[in-house]
Design a protein that fits this description.
Layout: H1 21-31, E1 43-46, E2 64-69, E3 76-80, H2 81-94
Antiparallel strand pairs: 1-2, 2-3
Helix pairs in contact: 1-2
Amino acid sequence: MPHPSPRSQRTPEDPTRQPSILQLVRDGLDKGRLWILEAAPVWFGHGAVKPCVVCRLRIRVQSIQYDLPVPRGTGTIPVHEECYRVWLFESDRRR
């Protein structure tokens, strides 16, 4: 099942156009909301209906959710499988 587009975010150039996951990841990395991934996810499985840290959409039960460790802290954050793969790709590219 394809990843849904974030409905709450629009690009400045075209307020009706949705940003891609890559655009969301790059923006998050540039603004410090996301970080360069170093570690593999600690857990993955069916979604727990929590919002994804990248696209902010809830991860549905029928989707795959990764729980990533928070840097310099305890706990994890939920990420869609597709959002994780794009975030990992961009992290590798920036390293």
